[in-house]
Amino acid sequence: MEKIQPVNGNALIRLEEAEGDKKVGGIIIPRNAQEKLHEGIVEGLAAGATDEISIGDRIIYKEFSGTKIKHGDTEYLIIPVDDIIAKYVDVDEI
Length: 94
What we know:
By secondary structure, this protein is mostly beta strands. It has strands spanning 10-15, 22-24, 27-29, 39-45, 58-61, 67-71, 74-80, 84-87.
């Protein structure tokens, strides 16, 4: 099986599936009318790209960033590491 390895300071992001149709106040909002989330899971990093992000991190990236690709049945986005603006971290409850 082939694997995609990002190079030149890029990251490979697995795009998260959008949820199905939502109901808001009894009105059904179709999936294609919902705002897309700019989040994903880091699946690969170029060597030496960053120390702040690791494979498996759930991140938020800039809206118009990267190149979409499809590998198998999964959609990915290849983006510059500098376009990753935040990551989700677990914290203890107060």
